[in-house]
Design brief:
Layout: H1 16-24, E1 25-26, H2 29-38, E2 45-46, E3 51-52, E4 54-55, E5 69-74, H3 89-97, E6 102-107, E7 112-117, H4 126-146, H5 156-169, E8 176-180, H6 202-211, E9 222-226, H7 240-257, E10 260-264, E11 295-299, H8 316-322, H9 324-331, E12 337-343, H10 350-370, E13 378-384, H11 400-406, E14 408-414
Helix pairs in contact: 3-4, 6-7
Length: about 425
């Protein structure tokens, strides 16, 4: 619905300076109240009153110069309940007072529009008009906080497309879409519950989504990513490196689709929404435990992952820690042996894959020798692409999640030569 406040105007003696203060500094209890809930520590707050002052530009944008604002808010399980970080207060105010609409889309397994709010005051003086603007802002906040899931799951790509459709229907092809979500969808074109996807290479995920034309409606629009990586139980918390890669996946994918992307860090904490609808948690990458006299597979999602197309480990200290028990086992008995086999994804040429997989196996051997293992105890080889699992989809397109599982080092250990 469209909200058109018609609040009666107070006496005309209200001063212009007071109206300027009201317009220039947002003292919106609703938006301020969401600051603690979302963990937005960059916004000053008044702990005594529970309100926050957010400085906004004194002068409103000219009518028609500010495009629509679409808030895509996660209402699904496994993420903090829907709220509006205080950092968005000025975006909301500027959009409304310019006469442009603010739409709210609830993100679950079947994303849908919750409401559209537009400010159009009939007040006769600035102070009353400011009050009406505040009422419209509160309506935005209450719409966000009142949004509820109506289906299982989270389909982020579908949600962004709904947001783009809403913007187009409002005549705003350069709208600002603000995604307020954990960024861990469990269905749709981008499914972060697929093993390997959370650690997949951002450029490969972007290409994967581009092949499906999954985000083409976002071309020309602006997208802000807010609160990506912040979760609630039963979703396990992401590590900083996981959050960084997830953010890069979303940013790179939207970039490739033609959107202008901005990442706005806003720590979001708190309980998940009270809902009976479920969302599948995304499995977090983990490093397997070495087991003697067996084969242990360390794929690209583990601590033995490499930077793209190189023999440089992503996190050398973590890699050393991951093989420390193997090194100790080998040095305890000089008769023990390890064979390290490198494997690659299907991209590139057969010769290139063979060289890279062998070079990565040699890099792990060097890591073990640095930990005191006799080089004579270790053999290396490069198997190239072994399709375990196949990383091409039935239509021949590249699967970035399965590619991450194919890039590996496989260490087989024996007690005697």
């Amino acid at each position: 619905m469209f909200i058109t406040p018609t609040r009666s105007a107070p006496s005309a003696s209200t001063s212009r300076s007071a109206a300027t203060v009201l317009a220039g500094v947002l003292l919106l209890a609703g938006l301020a109240g969401c600051a603690p809930a979302s963990g937005d520590t960059d916004t000053p707050s008044n702990s005594g009153s529970g309100t926050a002052a957010v400085a906004c530009p004194d002068e409103p944008s000219a009518a028609g110069t500010t495009p629509a604002l679409v808030l895509l808010v996660g209402v699904h399980a496994n993420a903090p309940a829907a709220d509006v970080p205080a950092m968005l207060a000025c975006d909301i105010r500027d959009t409304l007072r310019a006469g442009s609409p603010v739409a709210v889309v609830g993100l679950d397994g079947d994303p849908a529009v919750e409401d559209t709010i537009r400010f159009d005051s009939t007040a006769q003086n600035d102070a009353a008009r400011s009050d009406d603007l505040t009422a419209a802002e509160k309506q935005v906040l209450s719409t966000v906080r009142g949004a509820r899931a109506s289906s299982d799951g989270s389909d982020l790509v579908a949600g962004m497309n709904v947001a783009a459709d809403v913007a187009a229907s409002l005549g705003s092809l350069d709208a600002l879409i603000v995604v307020i979500d954990s960024g861990l969808p469990d269905r749709g074109a981008l499914n972060m519950t697929t093993p390997g996807m959370l650690a997949a290479r951002p450029a490969e995920v972007a290409g994967f989504l581009a092949d499906q034309h999954a985000l083409r409606k976002l071309d020309g629009m602006r997208v802000d990513l807010v609160g990506i990586g912040y979760t609630s139980s039963p979703q396990e918390p992401l590590t900083p490196s996981m959050t960084d890669n997830l953010t890069a996946i979303l940013r790179t994918s939207l970039d490739k689709a033609g959107a202008t992307v901005r990442v706005r860090p806003a720590p979001r904490t708190g309980n998940a929404p009270d809902t009976t609808f479920t969302t599948t948690p995304a499995p977090l990458p983990s490093t397997p435990t070495f087991t003697p006299a067996s084969t242990t597979v360390y794929d690209d999602t583990t601590a033995l992952g490499f930077l793209p197309d190189t023999t440089t480990l992503r996190d050398p200290p973590a890699a050393s820690q991951a093989v420390a028990s193997l090194a100790a086992w080998l040095t305890a008995d000089p008769q023990r042996r390890a064979t390290i086999t490198g494997t690659c994804a299907s991209d590139g040429t057969p010769a290139g894959r063979a060289r890279l997989s062998r070079a990565r196996a040699d890099a792990i051997k060097a890591l073990l020798t640095d930990l005191g293992v006799d080089p004579a105890q270790i053999a290396t080889s490069g198997a190239g692409y072994i399709a375990d699992p196949p990383d091409r989809r039935p239509d021949g397109t590249f699967d970035p999640a399965k590619a991450a599982k194919n890039r590996s080092v496989r260490i087989t250990t024996t007690e005697t030569p």
